[in-house]
Amino acid sequence: MPDPGNIAPDFTLPRDGGTSVTLSALRPAPVVLFFYPRDDTSGCTKEALAFTALKDAFAESGAEVLGISRDTVEKHQKFRDKHDLGVPLLSDADSDICEQYGVWKQKSMYGKTFWGIERTTFLIDGEGRIARVWPKVKVPGHADEVLDAVRAL
C-alpha cells in the first residue's frame, strides 16, 4: 500500500457511462479514491450514497471523487442508476490497480478464506502525492471525515 508522501500509482480505467478516467489527467485537482468491495451491497451502497450526498461540497473544495471496484462497467451503471449515485464508478476488473494500491487482500468470513477488496480510501493532492490513507474504512461518518481532510489540504 502506498504511504502518504508517495506518488499515487497512475491509471486509466473505464467508468460508468462508457468513458474512461486517467488519474494524472485530473491534476491539479485533489482526488479522493474510495475502493469498495462490490456494487449494490449494504456497506458499499451506504458509502457511495454518503459520497454522493457530499458531491457538491467536494466540488466546491475542488476535489474529484472516484469509486473503484472490480465490478464491470455494466454493473456500475445499474448500481448508479438504481441508487441515483453522483460519483463516477471505475472498473478494475483484473484487480491490477487494486493490487498497486495494496487493497486486494486475503480476507476471511465464516471460516472461509477468499481474495477481495479491503474498503480503503486515498486522498491524493494536486501534485499526485498521497496525502492521506484510510484503511479498513468503517462507513458511518467516513465521507465527512474525508471532506474535512480535503478542505485541510
From TrEMBL:
InterPro entries registered for this protein in UniProt: AhpC/TSA, Peroxiredoxin_AhpC-typ, Peroxiredoxin_BCP/PrxQ, Thioredoxin-like_sf, Thioredoxin_domain
Gene Ontology BP, a term: cell redox homeostasis
GO cellular component, one term: cytoplasm
Key words of the record: Antioxidant, Disulfide bond, Oxidoreductase, Peroxidase, Redox-active center
Pfam families, sorted: AhpC-TSA
Active-site residues, Swiss-Prot/TrEMBL: C44
Membrane-spanning parts: none
GO function terms (MF aspect): thioredoxin peroxidase activity
Enzymatic reactions: a hydroperoxide + [thioredoxin]-dithiol = an alcohol + [thioredoxin]-disulfide + H2O
PANTHER family xrefs: AHPC_TSA FAMILY PROTEIN, THIOREDOXIN-DEPENDENT PEROXIDE REDUCTASE
Functional summary from the UniProt entry: Thiol-specific peroxidase that catalyzes the reduction of hydrogen peroxide and organic hydroperoxides to water and alcohols, respectively. Plays a role in cell protection against oxidative stress by detoxifying peroxides and as sensor of hydrogen peroxide-mediated signaling events.
Family: Belongs to the peroxiredoxin family. BCP/PrxQ subfamily.
Subunit composition and interactions: Monomer.
Protein name listed in UniProt: thioredoxin-dependent peroxiredoxin
